[in-house]
Design the sequence.
């Protein structure tokens, strides 16, 4: 309905460079991709601010039907690379999409051994991601292939490529600063945070008590012994015999004095 209107830009892009075709390819909406590609005012090979094209997103997320549609066109670069140096083949290898790998490798314009900014080839991405099933496809010799990650100088030492998590961390660092996520697929919600502990005075008191504290102390209720108030009466009970003895002696002295006098 919107595409039938004359006042709708079918190839508009947001501040991140994503067009309707980018979203449709990244989310796997094959029907929408076909409708958009039928229009002459839609760039089928537009790149966003990350340098990724609709083909890159479709190859990364495993949408074979959309990849096939895009590859059948003559205006789509099947070996384009993003700002990180990764190509559609690199993404398909890293995510283990065998069908997409076969389609890309059948073409003569795709370099099966290209390296990204970290010096990783599609074979390395598949190997490091544990996608063992696609390794035979990538290890087969290709006419276009050439070892770009190796050097002929034996004295030149090439630093080891960073682990896969580092590349993702760098991408997240950039996108978090911009408040975006480059992966168009829905994300799994974060784990539910633990409940906030009750900070009442009683709980604060219990938190500072030793583990071996008696139950009546940790509960804040005094014991039976603590409930007895040792008042003046209990203190007088200890001195009553002495008082009686003194009174008795006083009476005896008085009687003795009276008898003598």
Sequence:
């Amino acid at each position: 309905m919107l595409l039938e209107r004359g006042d709708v830009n079918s190839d508009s892009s947001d501040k991140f460079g994503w067009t309707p075709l980018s979203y449709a390819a990244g989310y796997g909406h094959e029907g929408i991709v076909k409708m958009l590609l039928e229009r002459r005012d839609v760039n089928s090979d537009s790149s966003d601010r990350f340098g990724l094209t609709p083909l890159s997103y479709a190859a990364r997320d495993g949408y074979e039907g959309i990849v096939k549609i895009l590859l059948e066109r003559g205006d789509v670069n099947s070996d384009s690379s993003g700002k990180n140096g990764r190509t559609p083949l690199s993404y398909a290898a890293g995510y283990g999409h065998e069908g997409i790998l076969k389609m890309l490798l059948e073409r003569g314009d795709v370099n099966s051994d290209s390296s990204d900014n970290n010096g990783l080839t599609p074979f390395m991405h598949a190997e490091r991601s544990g996608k063992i099933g696609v390794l035979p496809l990538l290890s087969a010799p290709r006419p276009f292939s050439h070892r770009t990650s190796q050097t002929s100088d034996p004295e030149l030492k090439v630093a080891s490529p960073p682990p896969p998590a580092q590349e993702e961390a760098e991408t997240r660092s950039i996108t978090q600063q911009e408040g975006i996520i480059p992966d168009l697929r829905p994300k799994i919600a974060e784990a539910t945070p633990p409940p906030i502990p009750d900070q009442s005075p009683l709980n604060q008191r219990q938190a500072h008590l030793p583990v071996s504290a008696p139950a009546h102390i940790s509960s804040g209720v005094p014991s039976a012994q603590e409930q007895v108030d040792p008042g003046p009466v209990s203190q007088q009970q200890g001195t009553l015999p002495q008082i009686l003895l003194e009174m008795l002696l006083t009476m005896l002295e008085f009687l003795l004095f009276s008898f003598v006098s």
Notes: The first helix runs from residue 20 to 27. Residues 144-164, 177-181, 185-238 have pLDDT under 50 and may be disordered. The chain has 14 helices and no strands. The domain at 20-148+160-178 is CATH 1.25.40.20 (Serine Threonine Protein Phosphatase 5, Tetratricopeptide repeat).
